[in-house]
Write a structure and sequence with these properties.
Layout (H helix, E strand, L loop, with lengths): L2 H9 L12 H17 L9 E12 L4 E10 L6 E10 L5 E8 L29 H6 L3 E6 H4 L12 H4 L11 H16 L5 E11 L1 H12 L5 E5 L17 H8 L14 H4 L7 H5 L5 E7 L7 H17 L17 E2 L4 E6 L7 H12 L1
Parallel strand pairs: 4-5, 4-6, 6-7, 7-8, 8-10
Antiparallel strand pairs: 1-2, 2-3, 3-5, 9-10
The structure holds alpha-D-glucopyranuronic acid (GCU).
The site of alpha-D-glucopyranuronic acid has 8 residues, from α8.
């Protein structure tokens, strides 16, 4: 066995269920089911209708050549309609363009609602904590659509009065056992329902992207919604891209007590503590393997030991056989842990270890743009 296989064995990482071309989708859906039951929870099962109303637009944005749209999305639910916003920047083009759908920590700068007060009287829009390279994205011929996670439901344990959670709450198990990651991921898919109805976007290049807790969200959304042909996780770490067993930095114990138990279903709390974690019937490579057949990018940062880049790399290695089972190139990378500054772009799982701390910056975006355009 090589270094990586030894490391996976040493940590006791469970094997993925057997897969072949014939049983592929059925087995992939089993992975999604395992992850629903044990970590992110099940969402509701109804089908919604999704409408969009462009409340502000310009087709001469950025000095010309770019269309911006601030769109109010209305989703029908058995418990009444729900509204949230999506902000689009797209190059004016006769041809369909690649699309990034970013689940973000804020409204984008310049969006109609940025810094303003929403209808319910709550000032929900925080300052732009993350600058987006929006101009570079459109200069590269790609569109960017942004949703704001707290527009869906706050990042807190309130499942009774806050946003969409006021309609669906959460159950201990089964339908609507979802945590907030499940809510945010669900909304990203509803935003795509709307965007998908337009010819502006190249349906073979639709990426879901997010950073940190929203990288976890991006992965969970991509696992459930195969319309996302490209799935990008930036520094998603614990309960995201990183293998949990043997991980350094954040562990289930801390994420489910101190940090944010509300991100997950309650069953996940059972895996707190090393001994309990060792009994989990999955690890995070199950999540990455659910993207097999499509393209996946894991971005790590060398000084982000809380997220644990080595464990993210290990997860990419462990998910690779599912991609290969479909005849795709999986993760093409050396049989050792990565060095700061290394990047691996040959396979359908791509990876980089950016030198530096926990962030999603231009270094990361530059690579995600190349990934989506390729
Ligand atoms: C905390 C948390 C991480 C999370 C991060 C973020 O650091 O422990 O799990 O990814 O916040 O979302 O910024």
């Amino acid at each position: 066995m090589g270094f990586i296989q030894d490391e996976l064995a040493r940590r006791g990482v469970p094997a993925l269920p057997e897969i072949n071309k014939e049983n592929f989708e059925e087995t992939r859906l089993k992975l999604v089911d395992i992850l629903s039951e044990h970590i992110y929870g099940y969402g509701p099962s109804f089908k919604s209708e999704v409408r969009g109303e462009v409340v502000k637009m310009s087709d001469t944005a950025y000095g010309g050549g770019v269309t911006t749209e601030d769109i109010k999305i209305t989703v029908t639910t058995p418990k009444g309609d729900f509204e949230f916003y999506v902000f689009v920047n797209r190059p004016n083009s006769d041809k369909p363009v690649p699309l990034f759908l970013l689940v973000n920590f804020a409204y984008p700068c310049g969006g109609l609602l940025h810094g303003q007060v929403l209808g319910d009287g709550n000032p929900k829009a925080p300052p732009c904590r993350f600058r987006l390279p929006d101009e570079e994205i459109v200069d590269n011929g790609c569109a960017l659509a942004v949703i704001y996670n707290k527009d869906i439901s706050g990042d807190n344990g309130n499942f009774s009065t806050d946003g969409l959670a006021a309609k669906f709450g959460r159950n201990k198990s089964g339908e609507c056992s979802w945590g907030k990651i499940g809510y945010w991921a669900w909304a990203a898919s509803r935003a795509l329902d709307y965007l998908y109805t337009f010819d502006h976007y190249d349906k073979s290049r639709i990426a879901i992207v997010g950073h940190s807790r929203l990288g976890k969200t991006s992965l969970w959304c991509g696992a459930q919604d195969t319309r996302f042909t490209h799935v990008i996780s930036n520094d998603s770490g614990c309960s995201g891209a990183a293998i949990t067993r043997g991980k350094v930095g954040e562990k289930i114990e801390v994420i489910c007590t101190r940090i944010a138990p509300h991100w997950f279903c309650e069953k996940y709390y059972e895996y707190k503590g090393e001994e309990a974690t060792a009994k989990m019937p999955f690890d995070q490579h199950y999540l990455l393997a659910a993207m097999a057949g499509r393209k996946l990018y894991i971005g790590s940062a060398s000084e982000d030991q809380w997220a644990d880049p080595n464990s993210e790399y290990l997860s990419a290695c462990a998910a690779s056989p599912y991609f290969e089972a479909l005849g795709q190139k999986g993760f093409v990378a050396p049989d050792r842990f990565p060095e700061a500054g290394e990047e691996f772009h040959e396979g359908n799982i791509q990876y980089h270890l950016r030198p530096g701390t926990h962030a999603m910056n231009r270094y990361d975006w530059k690579r995600y743009i190349e990934f989506l355009k390729a």
